[in-house]
Design brief:
Radius of gyration: 19 Å
Largest sheet: none
Order of helices and strands: HHHHHHH
Helix content: over 70%
Structural class: mainly alpha
Number of helices: 7
Number of domains: 2
Strand content: under 5%
């Protein structure tokens, strides 16, 4: 999220891909909410305003420190694309876990071979997508 905050012109293009629920870190949640509020108020250009929208002193400090660092400015598209791929990978891995739990329960219950077949088909699709994303990350 620091890369997005340092390249705020990319936020509007990628905010639908990021998704609040896909972020695991509370600091990332706070930064996302601040970016979203700044975008709604058409104030993304102002670093100072973005800092004012943050409650956590730690997030403010991290963001403020990041403004001068080249690592957040060099190749932001590449960094952002990798981050988005990692978010998608995490999402698909959660789907895999959910599918496995459902499959285990369905197999324990017994007779519903149609449901088992459907879950196995879904599992293959999930595994294919995970493999594709991992290949993109290499």
């Amino acid at each position: 999220m620091l890369t997005v905050a340092n390249n705020r012109e990319l936020y509007l293009k990628t905010r639908t891909s990021i998704g609040f629920e896909s972020l695991n870190d509370p600091k990332a949640h706070e930064l996302y909410e601040a970016l979203e509020q700044a975008a709604r108020e058409d104030s993304l250009a102002s670093s100072e305003y973005l800092l004012q929208l943050l409650d956590s002193e730690q997030v403010k400090s991290d963001l403020s420190s990041s403004f001068g660092l080249a690592e957040f400015r060099n190749e932001p598209h590449k960094i952002l694309n990798e981050g988005l791929l990692r978010i998608r990978l995490r999402s698909w891995e959660k789907k895999r876990q959910s599918n496995k739990r459902l499959l285990d329960i369905t197999q324990l219950e017994g007779n519903d071979s149609e449901a088992i077949e459907e879950l196995l088909k879904e599992r293959l699709e999930i595994e294919e997508e995970i493999a594709r994303i991992k290949q993109e990350l290499e």
